[in-house]
Amino acid sequence: MILPLFRHELRSCLLPTAIIAAVVILYACVIIGMYDPRLGESLALMRDAMPELFAAFGMSDQGTTLLEFVVNYLHGFLLVVFPLVLVAVLTSRLVVRHVERGSIAYLLAQPVGRTRLVLSQAGVLALCLVLLVVALTAFELAAAQAMFPGELVASDLVAVNVATFCLWLFLSGMCWVGACVLPNVSAARWVGVAVCTLFVLAQMLSGMGDELAWLADVTPLSLLDPLGVASGDADSVAGAAVLAATGVALVALGAAAFSRRDLSV
C-alpha cells in the first residue's frame, strides 16, 4: 500500500461516503421509529393490497421483532441500492477518472508497482465501506435503544450488518473489475454498475410471482440472508462468505488485469 496516495484518495472519497451514510442512517432511524403495532397493521393492509410491489422491494413480511422489521424494510432494497451508488461513485473516482484525465501517468511515473497502486486505491474503497457499515450500526443501535430499549440484541444487528457488508464487497468487486479491465472509459465506469443493477432487478422481480421466481437462481444477491446469518444458519453464513470471497477475488482479478493493462498515457 502507498500511504501518501491512500491518504490523499481517502480525503477525496470521504464526502460522498458521508452523504450516503447520512441518507442510510436517516432511513434507518425513520424505519426503526416506524416499529409500531398500530402502524404495522396499516402497513399490513397496504401490503395485502399491493403484495407484488412490497415483495419486489423485499418488504413482503414485516416480521414480529424489531430486527426482522428493520431487515425487511431496510436491508432488502435501500441497503443494496444506496451502497451501490456509493461504490459506483468511488470506483469512478479511484480508477476511471485518473485514466480519463490522464493523471494516471503521474501515478505510474512514481517508483512503485502498478499492483501496489491499484491495491491502495482498492483499500480506500474498502475502508469507506467499513466506515459506512460502522456508522450505520452505531446509529441503528443508538436509535433502537432510545426508542425501544431492550428490543434489539446488539450482536444480532452486528451479524445482520456484517452479512450486508459481504454483499457490498461483492458489488464492489463487480464494479472494480470492470473499471480495471475495460479500456473504454464509459464502459469501465458503467458496465459493472449495470451488471449489479441487473442483479438487483432480477432479485426484485423474483419476488413478484411464481412465474418469475426462477430469477432468484440467476442473481448472486439471493445468497444473502441477513436474518439467517443472525440466527447462525450454516447455509446463510456460507452464502454471505461466498459473496465476500467473490468480491475479494474480483478485486484481485481487477488488480492483476490493471497491472498488465496497456494504458495510452
Can you describe this structure in just a few lines?
The chain has 265 residues and is mainly alpha-helical.
Can you offer a commentary on this structure?
It is a single chain. It is built from 11 helices and no strands. The protein is an all-alpha fold and 265 residues long. The chain has one domain. Helix 1 runs parallel beside helix 7, helix 5 (78-101) runs parallel beside helix 8 and helix 8 (154-181) crosses helix 9 (185-206). It is globular, with a radius of gyration of 20 Å. The mean pLDDT is 85.
Q: Structural class, from helix and strand content? A: mainly alpha
First-to-last CA distance? 23 Å
Number of domains: 1
Low-confidence spans: none
Number of helices: 11
Pattern of helices and strands: HHHHHHHHHHH
- What is the overall silhouette? globular
Helix content: over 70%
**Largest sheet entry:** none
Overall average residue pLDDT = 85
Q: What Rg, in angstroms, do the CA atoms define?
A: 20 Å
Strand content: under 5%
User: What's the total number of strands?
Assistant: 0
Produce the secondary structure layout:
Elements (H helix, E strand, L loop, with lengths): L2 H31 L3 H13 L1 H6 L9 H10 L2 H24 L2 H5 L5 H34 L6 H28 L3 H22 L19 H6 L2 H26 L6
Helix pairs in contact: 1-4, 1-5, 1-7, 5-7, 5-8, 5-9, 7-8, 7-11, 8-9, 8-11
Descriptive labels:
mainly alpha, globular, 265 residues, 77% helix
